[in-house]
Amino acid sequence: MLVFNRLYQERQLRMVKMLLSQINTLKEEMAALSDEEMAAKTEEFRQRLAQGENLDELLVEAYALVREADKRVLGLFPYDVQVMGAIVIHQGNVAEMNTGEGKTLTATMPLYLNALTGNGVHLVTVNDYLARRDSAWMASLFQFHGLRVECIDNYQPNSPGRRMAYAADITYGTNNEFGFDYLRDNMAH
What we know:
- The protein is mostly helical.
- It has helices spanning about 1-25, 25-30, 35-50, 55-75, 80-90, 105-115, 130-145, 160-165, 175-185, and strands at about 120-125, 150, 170-175.
- The model has no long low-confidence stretch (mean pLDDT about 95).
């Protein structure tokens, strides 16, 4: 069983590295785009989704776009290992990263990609400080792409503000707040 797991992990890692290589090949192409051209990509991606493409088909181009936007808007360019973490997260797996390794920046890529569906994306964190800080810090990046960002922790439960926060393209919050909102919404009377 251990050999099987190692072989599976090596195969998965090769696939992630292949996607990273494809993303890196688009670095200069994305750098050549104007801010307006970059911002227009969001609508282009949404149209491509409506025409039948799926998120996995958009991943390489979307991640390359967000990586360049991270540099322009935030002054931070995600390292390869952060891009690899972002790929793993989009695939529904866990990317373990230590404090200070850039989880907030890593999350920008899968958050953007999955927000393209229009269904809303939630980023769950463990404390309200991180939820508020990260939503405020990353808001300019996502707004650059025409997306709306909110933090449920800024609003009282069952308030119009909280409902508005849940309607955003990207919603930050804590595990406790998301969990209790779910329970409140699904209580039997």
